[in-house]
Amino acid sequence: MADKVTLSLNPDTLARARAAAKQDGLSLSAWIDRAARKEALRCAAQQHEAWLAANPEVQDELDAFDRYADKVDAGWSDLAGAA
Q1: pTM
Q2: Domain map of the chain by residue range?
Q3: CB 17 within 8 A of CB 35
Q4: Among 25, 32, 39, 24, which Cα is nearest to 6's?
Q5: SS3 for 66?
Q6: What span, in angstroms and rounded, lies between the C-alpha atoms of 69 and 1?
Q7: 2 phi and psi, to 5 degrees?
Q8: What is the mean pLDDT of the chain?
Q9: Helix (H) or strand (E) holding 77
Q10: CA-to-CA distance for 35 and 7, rounded, in angstroms?
Q11: Per-residue b/e over 43-53, b at no fewer than 16 CB within 10 Å?
Q12: pLDDT tens digits, the chain, 83 residues: what are they?
C-alpha cells in the first residue's frame, strides 16, 4: 500500500499535472508517482554516468565485457523452436 503524503504545489504546476494525468488516464496520485519515479531514475542514471566518467577503468571493463558477450552471443542459434 502506498504511503500518504501532503504536497504543496504551485497552482500552475498542479493544473498542468491534473491535465496530464487526465490525458494519460491516470489519477493525479498515480501520475505524480510516475513522474517522481521517472525523475528519481533519471537522477540516478546521471549519477551513474558521472561515476563511470570518473572511473574510466570500470567503463573499459564494461566495454570489454560487451564485446565478449557480442562475440559469444553470435555463436548461438535461435533455440526457441527446438522444443
Answers
A1: 0.68
A2: 11-73
A3: yes
A4: 32
A5: helix
A6: 40
A7: -75, 150
A8: 91
A9: none
A10: 14
A11: eeeeeeeeeee
A12: 889 999 999 999 999 999 999 999 999 999 999 999 999 999 999 999 999 999 999 999 999 999 998 888 776 666 666 55
Structure-block grid coordinates of residue 42: 533519471
Q: Which three-class secondary structure string do you get for 21-47? A: HHHHCCCHHHHHHHHHHHHHHHHHHHH
What is the dihedral sign for C-alpha 25, 26, 32, 37? negative
Residue 43 near residue 34, CB atoms below 8 Å: no
**DSSP code, position 4:** P
**Distance spanning both ends of the chain, measured CA to CA:** 41
Residue located via cell numbers 572511473:
55
